[in-house]
Amino acid sequence: MKLAKRTEKTSHSGLDEIFAASKPGMISFAGGYPDSKLFPRVEIEQAFSHTFQSAPATLLQYNSSKGYLPLREKLATRMRNDGINTTTESVMLTQGAQQGIDLAARLLLNRGDGMVVEAPTYLGALAAFDVYEPNYYEVHMEADGMNIDELQKVLMKHEVKMIYTVPDFQNPTGTVMSLEKRKALVQLANIYDVVILEDGPYRNLRYTGEPLPPIKHFDTEGRVIFLGSFSKILAPSLRLGWLTASPELFDGLVALKGGSDVETSNLMMSSVDGYLAENDLDAHIKEVKATYQHRKDLMVSALKKHLPSEVHFNNPEGGFFLWLTMPQGFDSTRFLQESLIPNSNVSFVPSANLVPSKQLKNAARLNFTNVNDQDIETGVEMLGQQLKLALQSKPIRKTATR
Ligand SMILES: Cc1ncc(COP(=O)(O)O)c(C=O)c1O
Fold first, then answer.
1. Which among 22, 59, 187, 264 could disulfide-bond with 26, CB atoms 3.0 to 4.6 Å apart, if both were Cys?
2. pLDDT in tens, 256-266
3. How much is the average pLDDT of 269-293?
4. Residue 319, ligand 1, Cβ within 6 A
5. Is ligand 1 within 6 A of the CB of residue 264?
6. Which parts of 109-158 fold into alpha helices (H)?
7. Is 97 a pocket residue for ligand 1 (Cβ < 6 Å)?
8. How sure is the predictor about 268, in pLDDT bands with cuts at 50, 70 and 90?
């Protein structure tokens, strides 16, 4: 069949093949899911039911591409309280943050246009960007966010239209971008005429330390598109996210949304609005955070206990993930396929899948939110055993240097 040329570049993550070897009962540190047991099922069910009972007939009608007004008002207020200077008029509901990523790319990227991504970055964003066939520039992550000197060099040398960043508890590294870098990023975007896509689905999930303002807070020229999502703080199946942007960008995003799926489901938007009216979302987030923080702490102490000293890991202050770094020359994809899954039935996401060039081979993402305490203990112990064995074994160490 003659498919569109753009599908040739569409990210083929290769992860399905890797996990095909997994057996039932796998301990998965690979997923990026919230824990289903923490969803406020009863409250969401009640909100849907109350919305249905009390809503006018128009509940089942089309609404608007921007979305259900009362919910946009609530989100505008939440964002203002979080340091984003926005109004209800500049807020649009999306089908998850994922749709926001797609719409921003569609608005900005012609084939071959330059775009900067963090290395590593969110796999799903690469899948969305690939369709628009950009020219990627990878900027490496450091403990306090992307390397700004490297970014500046890229911007000086190349024409770049868009920078994609997850500044809070980044997927996949768990890193938070420092205050200085947030400001520097906006300054560079102003100088080099670039749009910043700030993706913030983990922003509300801080377990320790002090929150930093969103990058959008420092936006002086309307260059930052901010994306939020209910997926990690309420439930992903709602498929509900939001964005805010300056009028210059916002109007185009609204028009593209109309052409893409007309609008987000009115039933969903109205019911989530009902949930927010009847419940204290922040109290729910507080409960969720307590569980995730406990699991993260448990994973960190298990890693300290079981990992060989050559393997490094961070201790993120929030979010869903932490990042393992093995010695140079280690191939985490091979290790996963040849040792970890077959010998232990434990999994993670290998780093090569998380950069467009696939050239980051010695690291891995571990998820701690959707694994129980026992599995964290057992899985990390087995991971440690397999890593010790693999680090003594030449083939896995040597692949990347060949
Ligand atoms: C950084 C990042 N952005 C966006 C998404 C997509 O989220 P949503 O469910 O809101 O579409 C995810 C999901 O894992 C993510 O990690």
1. 22
2. 999 999 999 99
3. 98
4. no
5. no
6. 123-130, 148-157
7. yes
8. very high
Does residue 316 surpass a pLDDT of 60? Answer: yes
Instruction: Report the nearest atom of ligand 1 relative to the CA of 240.
Output: 10
Strand, coil or helix: 234: coil
Rounded distance, CA 127 to CA 130, Å? Answer: 5
Q: Which residue segment(s) compose the domain that 23 sits in?
A: 6-39+283-401
Task: Quote the pLDDT of residue 401.
Answer: 40
Whether 94 is in the pocket of ligand 1, judged by its Cβ within 6 Å, is no
Number of domains composing the chain: 2
Q: Is residue 218 part of a domain?
A: yes
Q: Does the Cβ of 172 fall within 6 Å of ligand 1?
A: no
Q: Specify whether 90 is located in the same domain as 206.
A: yes
The average pLDDT across 208-223 equals 98
CA–centroid distance, residue 307 to ligand 1 (Å)? 29
Is the predicted pLDDT of residue 134 greater than 60, yes or no?
A: yes
Buried b (16+ CB within 10 A) or exposed e, 252-286: bbbebbeeeeebbbbbbbbbbbbbbeebebeebbe
Residue 72 tokens read as 């946009």
